């Protein structure tokens, strides 16, 4: 038990009490007590969760909302899909009771079954309009024995007020924003603590098997945290008192959501480090990259953030043109800092960078939308992907990362400064708070000794190609070439488990010219009078050989079609396969951050 300050402190404006109503029905029960409601008290639920730029309509999972004061029902008038108004007697606490259906395994909403519970305040906690600036309490009630397994624990980055040894009990948030920004994990999870730059960090892992090497993940995560803190502050401490990683291991999940002093992550169980295995799998590197990415966000987007996010509007889309900076630059540094932390070598880092470069090059939408426009359109494009997405937009993650790379290499080449120094100066200039693109330009001018407006205009606000290859070559890198994969040569994206299914046709490619379409099932190939059943895309060269004209047999809905496919030798010869170090002196200066 921690000290029970709750008994002496004044009653909080809002007190949320969350109980597990029914694990098999995936229902949380919430009781919200508002100590001093307004006469016409408005309650609302967010439509989105900061960090994930999509209107998700969390209210669709809220049910059976009732209100009462001193035991008497209070009339609730629904004003919109996520807004209600209660006609209250002032001077009396208002109590709201409702249930929230929680059955989404992602990090963005809430989840509850007999194995595990997870929740975000944006999904479970109604906003009492007019009172959201005030401190509030969150009570997480311990469940009874749910299964034959070990007892449940509870973890969150919120400040404990009165909690038991398992972490259930009462927590405090400074305001609704902090409540909404502090996810809660419940279950029989693995957990351990470490210190980084004098600050306590907790690592919580749900869903791990007995093979999980927790100590290794703990040590590697600690190295990442120390490297990121040193990146921003040198030997000074970070701007938070505690930090919690909430990692849920699933069969094949991947994703994360950043918060001000915690992060919720999903990783594949097979990618966790295993006892007795010293090697680093590609999957484990990906997981470490995710950890590094979300932790870097603690500075870059949670504190240093778009001026438009100075105050979140939970009721609608919050637009910004700056996701290329906040997601792109974070993506640039996530893997680079793994390298600087000594967790991956030159070759592994360059392989990851090569993948990012290839992804941008294979996205025709880069010639249609600028990365600033793509940021603004995130709500309807990046977060609502369909078969046309690669043709219509560019990822502000991947192209944004390459803008960061180009800036860093340009600054280093001129010898005045580096992107590291720019990030640190931006932090100082904006006092770790809201910023605009003008701030980026001003810091660049100050540190580089010249304006980089022309570069930003071209790289961020036009669709011109980035000078990635020239800059990498100037820093001692050499491109390697290899045959382009068949999907790339044909200009399509497809899955080939249980037959070949076309997922997307890229603008201007062989498949588009032939008239293939997303959704087509590619059944076979006719080459020089012979027909072949096609099981996987990789078999196209096997049957086609040197033929430049073949016929594809495809099934579209209930029609069988014969499609003339012109294979151009030039399309399938070679493409940039990656990058390797050719001049280690020049390469080391950049890769090691000197
Ligand atoms: Zn991110």
Give structural notes.
There is one protein chain. The chain has 594 residues and is of the alpha+beta class. The protein has 17 helices and 31 strands. It has an eight-stranded mixed sheet with strand order 5-4-8-2-1-12-15-14. Strands 25, 26, 27, 28, 29 and 30 form a six-stranded antiparallel sheet that branches. A five-stranded mixed sheet has the order 17-18-19-21-20, covered by helices on one side. Strand 17 and strand 18 form a beta hairpin. It is globular, with a radius of gyration of 27 Å. The protein starts with 13 loop residues before the first strand and ends with a helix. The site of zinc ion has 4 residues, from helix 4 and helix 5.
Query: Helix content range of the residues, please?
Result: 25-40%
Main β sheet profile: 8 strands, mixed
Strand content: 25-35%
Distance between the termini: 47 Å
Counting H and I runs of at least 4 residues, what is the number of helices?
Answer: 17
Strand adjacency order, main sheet: 5-4-8-2-1-12-15-14
Give the averaged pLDDT, no decimals: 94
Rg over C-alpha atoms, rounded to the nearest angstrom: 27 Å
Structural class: alpha+beta
List the quaternary state of the chains: single chain
Q: Work out the number of β strands.
A: 31
Q: Summarize this, please?
A:
This protein is an alpha+beta fold and 594 residues long. 28% of the residues lie in helices and 29% in strands. The two termini are 47 Å apart.
Q: What attributes characterize this protein structure?
A:
single chain, 594 residues, alpha+beta, eight-stranded mixed β-sheet, globular, disordered N terminus, binds zinc ion
